[in-house]
């Protein structure tokens, strides 16, 4: 129990960067792989800010064999002159003091990408060393920090140079992070997004550990971003692109409609920061687009009885990138600490007018496209109305069996405290029965699946809603679907996919993840979707007429369990959930105190969209190419051989 005598002497004051090392998760979110890469983003953001302001056309990221990483830009170079208030060189101040830098006014940066972070000082604080070289004013300037930000080499001039820019090389501290192994693909996809947003700026990622290199340069910027997202889709037109400026806010929008796509993909940015929760710019875009299409459809006589199209009807199959550059100061407003939602009031009206004017002109100049788009929107409207009637029929218990077929397999939780409730989507009736017997009846619900779900990437909304499995799932979660889905209305704080640890189970997981990504994406973004991790092994032996045992989730865990239990132990290899009894399933996979869950997240929108379209879309040719290039069939054969033992 804490002492009750709480005085001023109990207050800790951490000097310099000590606070960051004491509570790293407060500054970078976590100390896992995501937190590790946050160190990279903080330094890359500085390079991006220089390019965003028009200084430098090349950013190079290098991963070295010793586990360190460097970021080199061709910007102006971090200032090295003495900061008057502190008496130390500016570059030293930036790398040793939190919240220091030139991004808090518009004097140095008219717009900045790094506002969501806490700066390169955090990278320094969580590294075994951080080496900084500044090429500025004809000199090579250098300083070095070690052991979490301690200055070991004060600022020194090494040589003369004609170069300009900054080179930062650091090595993460293994005492802080669970892994210090940088992921080449993670870094590549992150900087590719920046390359799309900064047309004409080249990003190079080099991995000296395995001799890999990626280069990203997009002269047409976000137009190529949309093309990349829709690479394997049948589209109604080339990418439509608008650019303009109003009230010192620079706007750029690229959009394209896919003919047989039923989802909506809008990615918005403010000063290169991804606004994952949207905001005023995204709302203005939607309002302007909806009005432009409705006005054109009405004036051209394509819709009857003045039946307005809903915004969701129009945006079905839409992929759009919205990028704003907003001056620093009062205009730039974000909502929340994570700055994932733009709050700038002017952006709503500006984007509304910008899109309405430009898209109306485009429709009038491209009448064949306009007619095809309106027809697509009318089809979407008809499907939406039919789906709504089906939902209404379910609620009133009229024609439910013919219009909105529901399974009777759900075993509900008894509690109405939705935040604490969990829904397990289970593969097969056998495992469903075991889970039903072993569950916590108060807070855990069980929904068994009948066979494999449909692939929602290749079917219409109407067909999806008439499918028994998905209709039941939507009705069970109780938060709607598609445009109307609201994660706050979910009857469950956690939705957990629980399948066998084999190829069929992985396929079912993929089909369900496709459904959730397309129709309940906010559930993923809110961190409410999980995949259960059933163990592969149960190691046991008899000790004093009593069975003692341990579960293992991989081969390394199996060996550890064998060592812990000692000799003469036996091993159960689980091929599926149905091979466990209710006690084993509960304590290994369902018990919140002991289970392992994998949270489903969307780290990179480009990679997620491309991978889903590629692997789950209708076109088999690019999927075959990807499989041949990325799958080691010798490993697959070994896995199947092991599973079938």
Quickly describe the structure.
The protein is α+β, with helices and mostly antiparallel strands and 645 residues long. The chain is built from 22 helices and 23 strands. It folds into four domains: 199 residues, Heat Shock Protein 90; 165 residues, Ribosomal Protein S5, domain 2 (2-Layer Sandwich); 159 residues, Rossmann fold, CATH 3.40.50.670; 40 residues, no CATH class.
Provide key terms for this protein:
645 residues; alpha+beta; Heat Shock Protein 90; Ribosomal Protein S5, domain 2; Rossmann fold; eight-stranded mixed β-sheet; five-stranded mixed β-sheet; 23 strands; flat; disordered N terminus
How are the SSEs placed, and which strands pair?
Blueprint lengths: L17 H5 L2 H4 L4 H20 L5 E6 L5 E5 L16 H7 L23 H6 L1 E10 L2 E8 L3 E11 L4 E8 L11 H14 L4 E6 L4 E5 L5 H8 L10 E7 L2 E9 L7 E6 L2 E2 L5 H20 L11 H5 L2 E8 L8 E2 L5 E2 L2 H21 L1 H29 L4 H4 L18 E6 L1 H10 L5 E6 L11 H5 L2 H10 L16 E5 L4 H17 L1 H5 L3 E4 L4 E7 L2 E7 L2 H11 L4 E4 L8 H9 L6 E3 L5 H12 L3 H11 L2 H11 L2
Parallel strand pairs: 1-7, 11-13, 16-17, 16-18, 18-19
Antiparallel strand pairs: 1-2, 2-6, 3-4, 3-6, 4-5, 7-8, 9-10, 10-13, 11-12, 14-15, 19-23, 20-21, 20-22
Helix pairs in contact: 3-6, 8-10, 13-19
